[in-house]
Design a protein that fits this description.
This protein has 254 residues and is an alpha/beta fold. It is built from ten helices and eight strands. An eight-stranded mixed sheet has the order 3-4-2-1-5-7-8-6, sandwiched between helices. It is globular. The structure holds adenosine-5'-diphosphate.
């Protein structure tokens, strides 16, 4: 299987913005094992801004763009250092791909990106993709890593896009405010009613909530890619997803 795994800030980091070391270690171990079993994996990872700001002691999210972009520059380095170190323990090589909207809009960039992605997979490498938040402006922003995950899944012709979040799927309403919310097991058609379930807000660290996850599910399923939303708090859920017995929401491919 060719898998694109998107992991959100709420999975990677503590509420301080700093790395959740135990969880990231376990995630890299499980992904390495899945790779050893013959799967190809592309990781779409958030978390750079929070980690960068945390590293220089900024605990409150700043309003000014230059501090945020500086945080992204510091944190992206830290993030890749951690991935490189952890995957190396299992003898896997990682590569960094930093995207902007220009890669999607300009054909030549897109072609080079595709060629690079496929070459990396041929070489047995784990590409780790993030938006290039140090240089993005409103004009070239992709905006959220759920959408980025779907774009990458389309490009590499993935079998599955797995979105790991702080919740185990799409519920009938936001479970953090509605105790009666029920998880939806399988979604075969993304209707307006499904889109309306997403509400607007996500957790305070993540950005997109369910809105961007459903948008990503639409992009990917329309390209024939199955999409799973599952809880990343226990990375072993990835085994269950591949075995077809995970607690999750599954969007079937068109
Ligand atoms: P991530 O950082 O993993 O992308 P987000 O915080 O952006 O995570 O999105 C997940 C959050 O979306 C959940 O924790 C929940 O509070 C919120 N949410 C809003 N509506 C729903 C819904 N219908 N089902 C599940 N979660 C929802």
């Amino acid at each position: 299987m060719r898998l694109v795994i998107k992991v959100g800030t709420s999975t990677l980091a503590h509420k301080t913005g700093l790395l959740n070391i135990k969880r990231v270690e376990r995630m890299c171990k499980v992904i390495s094992d899945l790779k050893n079993a013959g799967n190809e994996i592309v990781l779409v990872s958030s978390g750079a801004i929070g980690m960068g700001l945390g590293k220089v002691g900024i605990t409150k999210r700043p309003d000014d763009i230059s501090t945020l972009q500086a945080g992204a520059a510091i944190g992206q380095c830290e993030l890749m250092y951690v991935y490189d170190k952890l995957f190396s323990e299992y003898n896997h090589t990682v590569a960094q791909i930093l995207m902007t909207g220009a890669f999607v809009a300009i054909d030549d960039y897109g072609k080079n990106l595709n060629n690079t992605l496929f070459r990396l997979l041929e070489l047995g490498v784990i590409p780790i993709v993030n938006e290039n938040d140090t240089v993005t402006t409103d004009e070239i922003v992709i905006g959220d890593n759920d959408t980025l995950g779907a774009i990458i899944a389309e490009r590499v012709k993935a079998d599955m896009l797995i979105i790991l979040s702080d919740i185990d799927g799409l519920y009938t309403s936001n479970p953090s405010t509605d105790p009666d919310a029920v998880r939806l097991e399988i979604i075969e058609e993304i209707t307006e009613e499904i889109e309306a379930l997403a509400g607007t807000a996500g957790s305070h660290l993540g950005t997109g909530g369910m809105v961007t996850k459903i948008k990503a599910a639409r992009i990917a399923t329309e390209s024939g890619i199955e999409v799973i939303i599952a809880n990343g708090k226990d990375p072993e859920v990835l085994y269950d997803i591949l075995n077809g017995n995970a607690v999750c929401t599954r969007f079937t491919a068109k």
